Amino acid sequence: MRDANHLLAVEDSLEELRALADTAGLEVVGEMTQKLERIEPATFIGKGKVEELKTWQSELGFEVALFDDELSPRHQRNLEQELGEKARVLDRTALILDIFAQHARTREGALQVELAQYEYRLPRLTRSWTHLVRQAGGGAGRSGTAGVGLRGPGETQLEVDRRQIRARITLLKEQLEDVRQHRQQHRAQRRRAQVPVVSIVGYTNAGKSSLLNALVDAAGAKQTLPVLTEDKLFATLDPTTRRVRLPAGKTALFTDTVGFIQKLPTQLVAAFRATLEEIEEADLLLHVVDITHPNAVEQAKAVEQTLNDLEISDIPIVIALNKIDRLEPEQREALLAGPFPHSVPISALQQINIEPLLARIEHDLYESLLPVQVRLPYRRSDLAALFHDHGRVDVERFVENAVVIEGRLPARYLAVFRPYLVKAD
Questions:
Q1: Taking the model in full, what pTM does it have?
Q2: Which fold has domain 369-424?
């Protein structure tokens, strides 16, 4: 059964699920599909498929059954009862949370993952489930098949009652709110310094981290440590920021953010609010697309859909088509006539077209004027002055308790005026 928001075909979505399983450390031994007119209330899949799954379990001896769609707690509980204690049942959400638990390297990342895991697991916390946790051994350092889907909170936390887990969730949210406030202070300092911020977004494994390294190298900046790059999904979880000098001498901060994916778990969107605000308050988005991927268009649409879900639609975007070093010359020429006509074809790995990309970013940040209309309260006379100094004012009128300005602004100032926007094209 397909949701309208699922952009990939069934076969491609399963291929992505296999890649997720590989990243989590699982070996895939088989797969099955079923076309459903409606979801079975008790077990998600039909009774015949359940029996087929049980037969496969006895023949193949698999330890984990992965579902590409999110299962309800009831579905998961009933399926595990059908399979007995020989196999666990995980859905795509649990698998992604497990991968995030492996890759969280900072305190902020660990807090975000732990919160998402608790909120996902709380309604699924049953005796049979905690028995599996004890079986796996507990602790965040599990490895191998036995640990997949159980990384993160240890067994002692998962065996306490729901009230204590809810208290832990409340504490995690408070700690993440502190992180959020700290980030807001940093963003306020950056705005006062008038240093524009470019957030690098894209589908997981599109090459965002490699591009950030290439941008820093091309600009001649010194890196204490290069950003980690790895050919696996969600290799980068914690955001990394680097200062990059643009061709005309101005500077910008480039932030590498967590990769997007279709069917992005809602728990992650909520838990990663502090990190995602880095995207929301950016002056420009650099959307990296792996143009060599057979589902490049669908992946780009999934990123756009996630940005729309986050209500991020008024930030200028530059699209970089990555990995052109893998294409033949005639394929490269055909790119501009394809579905991304205003993009910049690049290779982060071979550092091809990095200078033209930086020039395009600089143009869009400083020279491309966007039509906007803002309503500024009189107490924000500083913003009115900023508009006059750096933008072009076409109409200015004074209304009750505010001044309304229509005109054009460089893209880099859009984030500052966003709370007061009436209209922006």
A1: 0.77
A2: Alpha-Beta Plaits (3.30.70)
120's tokens: 């996902």
- The Cα–Cα gap between 97 and 194 comes to 36
Q: In angstroms, how far is CA 121 from the centroid of its own chain?
A: 21
**Where are the strands (E) in 106-261, listed by range?**
197-202, 240-245, 251-256
Pair type for strands 402-410 and 369-377: antiparallel
Q: How many residues does the chain have?
A: 425
- Pick the residue with more confidence: 211 or 106? 211
Fold agreement (10-158, 195-367) = yes
Can you say how many angstroms the Cα of residue 222 is from the centroid of all Cα atoms in its chain? 27
Q: How is the chain split into domains, by residue range?
A: 10-158, 195-367, 369-424
Class (C level, CATH) for 10-158: alpha beta
CATH of 195-367, one of 1.10.260.40, 1.20.1530.20, 1.25.40.10, 3.40.50.300: 3.40.50.300
Task: Please give the span between the terminal C-alpha atoms of the chain, in angstroms, as a whole number.
Answer: 38
Nearest alpha carbon to residue 153 among 117, 185, 206, 108: 117
Is residue 421 within a helix (H) or strand (E), and if so which, with residue range? Answer: strand 421-424
Distance CA 233, CA 15 (A): 12
pLDDT at 3 over 60: no
User: Do residues 349 and 315 lie in contact, with contact meaning Cβ atoms separated by under 8 Å?
Assistant: no
Digit-coded pLDDT (tens) for 54-96: 999 989 999 999 999 989 999 999 999 999 887 889 999 899 8
